[in-house]
Amino acid sequence: MDLHSAKTSDCIMADDWYPAKKDAGDLNMPARRGVSQAAKWLLRAKPGNHAQECVRARAIMTEARGLVKGIHESVANGERIDPRTLDPVVEAIAASIQRDPTAIPSVTRLKLRHEYTFYHSVAVCGLMVGLARALRLDEAEMHQIGLAGLLHDIGKARIPNALLNKPGPLDDKEFALVREHTVRGHEILCDAGGVSDLVLDVVLNHHERIDGRGYPARKAGPAISVHARMGAVCDVYDAVTSARSYKPAWSPGEALEWMRGTEGHFDRAVMNAFAKTVGAFPYGSLVRLAGERLGVVLDPGQGDPLDPPVMIFMDAASKRPLPPLRIDRAGKSIVAVEYAERLGIPDWADVRREIIRHSTLGSSQDTHGK
Ligand SMILES: [Fe+2]
């Protein structure tokens, strides 16, 4: 199957990409407003090792998810919202990325399928903050970029659930309705008041494309701000690397390959800066190593992201499982980034999660990368 044509058709379905899905369990939980003591503590945390930061990142994710969910529910109930309640959690995410740029992305990459809706907003926030740091934007701008990530799909709170939860492809009329989330989100935040122009711009324009084929206004080239371009890159990257009911998760390497090869959608300079923040072999990627072995890229922590540890688990030719073997500094042994669906590995998101879990329990180790 041709990778690019397959992914383009997938994206038509995924675009809007991923109409947000609210599962029944989520809807039964009480809305949370305001920031907890936990988030305040996390904000003040001192740098530690990578494992410690991942624990903090999980706590920050949980906090942020609850706040975003509460805001979405308030909008759906017709209540007025105060987006400033999100400020402390944006600061906590930015502080985590400052201490360890890999922790928040590591945690958000492994979000569970049924928890997608609100975690996606948090993931985009983390990616936006990381990209803002890479582009050397100042602190105030970086904060607003993060807030824009948390709020970019707020307009979906006013799109009917039946439409957002539809399992099959959307027809033209339905797709047009889902596309309204950009304009609706802009209206919601204008009504709320106290929201910066930067956030309003990202919410309204994160689906515009450089070639003028985006929406809602089909803006092109210089008419699209750098902030909206950042939003487009981070939004699509998280969407395509997330498992959904209608598609498997693409590996980060595959996502970058497709995004960089897609003409006219993304700003090239922003895309290149983003690729550097994600790395050549991002955490969780499926890779083929010398000797026809398949492995999963593990978290490099403070190590070299271009020379990460890999957990071997399968023979690529026979598709037979291999005894788990951790290889540290495997960069030189990696011959290709692979695509689980193309290789016929079912339930890849679950398999990967299990391999990564196994890696934290200890296993045979080969530090030579051979
Ligand atoms: Fe969107």
Question: Layout of helices and strands, plus pairs?
Answer:
Elements: H1 3-14, H2 24-27, H3 37-43, H4 50-76, H5 87-99, H6 103-109, H7 116-134, H8 139-151, H9 161-164, H10 172-179, H11 181-192, H12 197-205, H13 226-240, H14 252-261, H15 268-278, E1 286-289, E2 293-297, E3 310-315, E4 321-327, E5 334-337, H16 340-343, H17 348-359, E6 364-366
Parallel strand pairs: 4-6
Antiparallel strand pairs: 1-2, 1-5, 2-3, 3-4
Helix pairs in contact: 3-5, 4-5, 4-6, 4-7, 5-7, 5-8, 6-7, 7-8, 7-13, 8-12, 11-12, 12-13, 14-15
The structure holds fe (ii) ion.
The site of fe (ii) ion (FE2) has 6 residues, from loops.
Contiguous low-pLDDT stretches (5 residues minimum) are 1-35
Instruction: Give a quick account of the main beta sheet: strands, pairing sense, barrel closure.
Output: 6 strands, mixed
Query: Can you write the helix and strand succession as a string?
Result: HHHHHHHHHHHHHHHEEEEEHHE
Oligomeric state, counting identical vs distinct chains: single chain
How is this structure best described in words?
Helix content is 51%, strand content 8%. With 370 residues, it is an alpha+beta fold. It has a 6-stranded mixed beta sheet, with helices on one face. α4 crosses α7 (116-134) and α14 (252-261) runs antiparallel to α15. Fe (ii) ion binds at residues 152-153, 181, 206-207, 235.
